[in-house]
Amino acid sequence: MKIYKFLSLFFIVFNVLTLSSCRNSDDTDSQDTSTGNLQIKFENGFNNLGNIVLNQTVQTSASGQKHNFSALKYVISNITLIDESGNEFKYNENNPDKGAFIVDQADAVAGVVYLDLNGIPKNNYKKVRFGLGISQKAYLLGQNGQAEFWTKAKQKGMSWSWAAGYVFIKLEGKYGASTADTEFMNHTGNMGNVTANNTPDLYREITLNLPTTARVTAQIRPSIHILADLNQFLSGSKMLSLTTENNMMMGSSQHLVDVTDNLTAMFKVDHVHND
Q1: Under 8 Å CB-to-CB from 210, ≥6 apart: which residues?
Q2: Of 118, 166, 178, the residue nearest 141 (C-alpha)
Q3: Is the separation of the CB atoms in 171 and 153 below 8 Å?
């Protein structure tokens, strides 16, 4: 009987200690505030084949029109990472100085433009959301609220004037029926306060599922590889053609609204590396 009581007491103490240890471990995990880094890679191509070469790569649209790009740039902002439980981490939301980037094909390395994000909370992320352009909330902060990014945008030719704001997407190149020999210029973007001016808001947000979980830790820096299919420019949900009426356009005309809507669908996550 003494041995039986001793063993019973031993197992009770053992279970209490085990549960306490697990609870402490869970508490430690739930309070883990460590951060890591994450990289997003943009690769611009046609029909999900990457590496557009400026002034060289020619695409034929759904309507049979040939076109190429001499300039291909767009603004990415308000990057949000969404974890397995649906919780969101917003990376410098509406803070262009720290959270906006210009994807410029002229800067591509082996066809890829790299965006490096730091200070990302340790977590397993299943989705990414980002803005194409600059939100009205960020723009209306005024020049003092985004002086650094405004300077970058100006240097990259991604601004109108301060009163008007930013170019969101800049596409320039040549087009034609049999050969691409006629110049075009389509620059999309808001001009000023769209509510006060009663003009379309061309800022768009895109949410993408990740095929593999991006696991951010202090040791692991995931890399999210996004393909941008520029075939959507003229061959998207609305089939477009460049003409003498729309080949030189800036702002938010109906043609540029259609261009924006088409290009909103150009992004997809090709793969995720957890390195």
Answers
A1: 125, 126, 127, 128, 224, 269, 272
A2: 166
A3: no
Q: Residue 24: phi, psi to the nearest 5?
A: -65, -40
The answer to whether residues 224 and 201 touch, using CB atoms and an 8 Å cutoff, is: no
Phi, psi of 38 (to 5 degrees): -145, 145
- Which value, to the nearest 10 degrees, does the dihedral of the CA atoms of residues 92, 112, 74, 175 take? -170
pTM: 0.88
Structure tokens, 214: 């991006």
CA distances from residue 81 to 108, 123, 127, 223 in whole angstroms, order as listed: 24, 10, 6, 13
* Burial of 3 from C-beta contacts in 10 A (0-12 / 13-18 / 19+): exposed
Burial class (CB in 10 A: 0-12, 13-18, 19+), 60: middle
Q: How far is CA 48 from CA 1, 33, 221, 226, 268, in A?
A: 76, 38, 25, 10, 9
Give, for 138, the enclosing helix (H) or strand (E): helix 136-139
Contacts with 94 (C-beta within 8 Å, 6 or more apart), sequence order: 78, 135, 137, 138, 141
CB 14 within 8 A of CB 196: no
- Summarize pLDDT for 95-119 with one digit per residue, the tens: 999 999 999 999 999 999 999 999 9
DSSP string of 63-79, one letter each residue: TS-EEEEEEEEEEEEEE
**Of 140, 170, 151, 153, nearest to 233 (Cα)?**
170
pLDDT tens digits along 1-17: 445 444 454 454 445 44
Strands 59-60 and 66-83: antiparallel
Gap between the Cα atoms of 165 and 97, Å rounded = 15
